[in-house]
Amino acid sequence: MKTIPKNTANILTVLRIVLVPVIAGLLLVPAAWAVWTAFILYGLCAFTDWLDGWIARKYDQYSDFGRFLDPIADKILVAALFIMLAATKAIPGIWLALPIIIMTREFLVAGLREYLGPKGVVVHVTQLAKWKTAVQMIALGILIPGMLYHGVAQAGLLLLLVATILTVITGWDYMKTARSHFKS
After folding, report:
1. Segment-wise mean pLDDT, segments of 10 residues, the chain, 184 residues
2. What Rg, from alpha-carbon coordinates, does the chain have?
3. Is the separation of the CB atoms in 38 and 23 below 8 Å?
């Protein structure tokens, strides 16, 4: 069986980060070709998010660098898209509360992991949190072409609402699990 280069998973993670400003810039161009190009690049990013994990597991390419950078790459992509979709009014008005709630949870859980790590406590990703991420990524993917089509945007916003509900549930679960490790 052929092997792949030892750093392939990490290269894919770095590629996601490099593509973020390209996608963001495209979303500022008021042309359908730019929106569709951003959509395709976002799809590539979402695929490489799955692919780098698969490669790391299948070819035993786990690394401290990958464990550190992969979740950061995901958060950079999601945060940048939320900002750009808000700036372009693809996420309008009261709907802006949803990305704020999602990003608040992301910072809290990241902080929780940072706080508990030195105590030897690992906060594992739950299956529901994986579903939350999948729904969130699909919602963002729908919201990009939703910049061109109102009905598509509404579907994306509804999926973002579902992702936000899952975000609150999983964030609460993480906090409940970790509370025994907090000192008063």
Report:
1. 69 95 97 98 95 88 84 94 96 97 94 86 86 96 96 97 97 88 72
2. 17
3. yes
